[in-house]
Task: inverse folding
């Protein structure tokens, strides 16, 4: 553990570096998109991305030998605080930094780490995740996309569905069947170049009118053997490990109650659309529901922080599964309340009759219905907690 | 659970073992069946004092061990698990905190060593109606020369029948509903003009209603500053709320553990009932509520120790979340046990009754939701 003196000197270093490198024009602004998750940045955002990536502070705690920050957890905490203080938000993120990179650090060979990690850290390569298939949702191991062993390469046929960011992605990692005789020990973890001949991406239009997800079709796609991560047919464990990182990264993100539809918070909407009476919200029933919503979000944020602290000492726990359930519940309930508070202003779709914040709130509300389905449904997560944390049989 | 210090881990183990061996729920049942007037068994209280828990917050120079609220919370959680009935919270936490926050030198020297030794019980008397509403208090304290005369009543005072002194929140000016004009007094229980009526309550604990008829008390009995005690009272109540929330968390965790054990052993239709998804999912959801409640309780206790400006928000959050979880858990403990849960022979009823009593004490869920949201200006 670092001494307080060391941490203070690191604080000075971080502060100076931010003064020199963070464009003040971006203070307290959210990136227009996430590098590593589809966005091609320009101008000050591009410069900030490059400097942050070069310094490795997009992934502060990753080892320096692959281009990461090489910081201790305490130093990473100091950096996060300094960045918050100057309103600096990292534009580098996505599947690469949140799930694939941490998994690779756990299970990749030295050569694979050198090959993939530097571009994840800099946000140069945009990754997508090939997991779900038409017949493999909650029962993910039922996946059928088949990578046939041809000696020095595989020939891949089949399809993936609900693939976020596939249209913009440069590469995909995912789980594919390499042996049809064994459900679990017949799956391999592969990477593939999305520009390979035979890869086709079709966007799926959602109830929100937007298309964050895609279908991906593979027709005789050549995947070199060097793209195999871990051992052939033993990819299921890697795939599950990656999902644990996904849940852990949700655990690390706090319930951001104050930014809704990218612009305004729940109290502000309440004040504006419901109005005040004697210093209190005019609708007493709604006031109590807002309190409950905010208290749930607060408890969720405290639990995420506590689990992260405890994981640093005791290692990851299956209990993080409840955070995925809570995250979905928190988001969905907040979005429902926002639309309800907007009243008929919460029914706008597009056009000049509604403000941008209003229509964005409607779209975000609709999009939030996927929160309890994506990344493991609420029901599957409750099964996992019942089985692995509570030790109940039959799940 | 938060990463504990070595001292906290030792106390946790000690408290857990003592409560299970010396004061399990069966002891509480015997005490209830005995129909005793005061709210606890004397030998239980003597053992608690002997272990030094009554002096956790009190400085070493005054006979205590000078530890913090997070550490007290660890002990209260363990005693809460076994429904231990004692004045530990009322006196060791609330009474001691009143003197630590607002007591002058003389009062502190007089009372804190006795609280630490368990030889005096000092409890707080704040509420006057069916609901917790500190701003609404109306018990009058009228000044005459160097003393005050107290007239009015207090209800549902914890351990009120066995207390040696009361921390009385009174109105020296203003009217009910105003924050200014509130003053705290330390009033010995044997002062002339106080009448105490013990209450028989569903949870079998020791509550009493107090009546003050022209009770004369010197100005040297004032805690804090005349007319300006609302902030002191609020800080004191927050310590009480966070400590009680820790106890409630323990009570609910034990109810959870016992229910989970039943789900793993009770068989119907040829299989353990925990294998039915409707019960497994409820258990998993209760587990989430339990973890959330724990995060809030620990954050509130630590905020008090760090003198964090968010302490009032976090204490309301902790009391509310612990209350919500205990409420649901005590109901589900009965439902998931089926018919046996309804019998007096089984312990679930004790957990349910303790749950409602502690929920209502120092503000229920509804009170704390309103207090929490008022911090956000709506």
Result:
């Amino acid at each position: 553990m670092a001494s307080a003196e060391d941490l203070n000197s690191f604080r000075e270093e971080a502060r100076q570096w931010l003064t020199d490198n963070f464009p003040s024009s971006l203070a307290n602004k959210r990136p227009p998109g996430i590098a590593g998750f589809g966005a091609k940045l320009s101008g000050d955002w591009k410069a900030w991305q490059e400097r942050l990536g070069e310094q490795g502070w997009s992934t502060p705690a990753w080892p320096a030998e692959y281009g990461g920050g090489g910081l201790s957890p305490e130093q990473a905490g100091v950096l996060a605080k300094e960045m918050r203080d100057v309103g600096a938000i990292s534009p580098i993120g996505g599947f690469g930094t949140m799930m694939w990179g941490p998994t690779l650090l756990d299970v990749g060979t030295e050569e694979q780490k050198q090959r993939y990690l530097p571009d994840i850290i800099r946000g140069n390569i945009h990754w997508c995740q090939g997991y779900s298939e038409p017949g493999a949702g909650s029962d993910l191991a039922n996946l059928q996309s088949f990578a046939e062993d041809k000696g020095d390469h595989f020939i891949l046929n089949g399809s993936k569905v609900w693939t976020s960011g596939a249209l913009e992605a440069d590469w995909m990692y995912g789980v594919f069947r390499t042996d049809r005789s064994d459900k679990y020990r017949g799956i391999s973890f592969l990477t593939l170049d999305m520009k390979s001949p035979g890869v086709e991406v079709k966007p799926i239009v959602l109830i929100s009118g937007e298309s964050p997800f895609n279908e991906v079709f593979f027709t005789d796609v050549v995947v070199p053997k060097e793209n195999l991560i871990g051992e052939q047919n033993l990819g299921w464990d890697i795939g599950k490990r990656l999902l644990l990182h996904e849940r852990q990264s949700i655990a690390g993100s706090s319930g951001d109650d104050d930014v809704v539809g990218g612009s305004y918070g729940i109290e502000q909407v309440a004040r504006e659309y419901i109005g005040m009476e004697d210093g209190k919200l005019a609708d007493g029933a709604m006031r109590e529901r807002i309190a409950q919503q905010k208290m749930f979000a607060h408890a969720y944020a405290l639990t995420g922080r506590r689990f992260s602290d405890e994981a640093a000492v005791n290692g990851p726990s299956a209990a993080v599964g409840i955070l995925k359930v809570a995250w979905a519940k928190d988001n969905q309930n907040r979005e429902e309340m926002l639309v309800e508070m907007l009243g008929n202003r919460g029914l706008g779709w597009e056009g000049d009759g509604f403000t941008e914040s209003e229509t964005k709130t409607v779209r975000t509300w609709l999009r939030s219905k996927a929160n309890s389905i994506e990344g493991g449904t609420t029901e599957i997560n409750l099964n996992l907690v019942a089985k692995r944390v509570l030790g109940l049989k039959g799940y | 659970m938060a990463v504990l210090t070595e001292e906290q881990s030792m106390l946790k183990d000690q408290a857990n073992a003592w409560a299970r061996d010396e004061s399990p729920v069966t002891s509480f049942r015997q005490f209830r069946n005995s129909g005793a007037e005061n709210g606890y068994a004397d030998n239980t209280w003597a053992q608690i004092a002997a272990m030094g828990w009554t002096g956790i917050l009190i400085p070493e120079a005054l006979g205590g061990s000078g530890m913090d609220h997070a550490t007290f919370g660890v002990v209260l959680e363990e005693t809460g698990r076994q429904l231990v009935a004692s004045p530990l919270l009322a006196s060791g936490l609330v009474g001691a905190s009143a003197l630590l926050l607002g007591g002058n030198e003389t009062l502190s020297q007089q009372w804190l060593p006795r609280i630490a030794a368990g030889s005096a019980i000092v409890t707080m008397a704040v509420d006057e109606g069916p609901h917790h509403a500190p701003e609404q208090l109306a018990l009058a304290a009228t000044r005459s020369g160097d003393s005050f005369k107290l007239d009015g009543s207090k209800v549902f005072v914890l351990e009120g029948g066995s207390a040696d002194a009361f921390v009385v929140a009174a109105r020296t000016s203003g009217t009910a509903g105003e924050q200014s004009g509130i003053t705290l007094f330390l009033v010995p229980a044997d002062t002339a003009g106080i009448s105490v009526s013990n209450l028989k309550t569903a949870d079998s604990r020791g509550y009493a209603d107090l009546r003050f008829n022209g009770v004369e008390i010197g100005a040297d009995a004032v805690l804090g500053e005349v007319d300006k005690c609302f902030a002191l009272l609020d800080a004191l109540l927050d310590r009480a709320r966070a400590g009680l929330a820790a106890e409630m968390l323990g009570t609910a965790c034990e109810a959870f553990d016992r229910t989970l054990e039943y789900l793993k052993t009770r068989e119907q239709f040829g299989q353990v009932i925990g294998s039915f998804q409707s019960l497994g999912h409820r258990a998993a959801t209760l587990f989430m509520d339990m973890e959330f409640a724990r995060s809030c309780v620990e954050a509130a206790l630590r905020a008090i120790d760090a003198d964090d400006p968010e302490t009032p928000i976090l204490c309301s959050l902790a009391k509310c979340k612990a209350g919500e979880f205990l409420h649901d858990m005590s109901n589900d403990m009965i439902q998931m046990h089926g018919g046996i849960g309804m019998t007096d022979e089984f312990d679930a009823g004790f957990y349910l009754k303790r749950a409602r009593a502690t929920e209502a004490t120092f503000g229920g869920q509804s009170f704390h939701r309103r207090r929490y949201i008022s911090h956000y200006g709506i």
About this structure: Chain B touches chain A through 39 residues (CB under 8 Å). Residues 230-265 of chain B form the longest helix (36 residues). The radius of gyration of chain B is 21 Å.
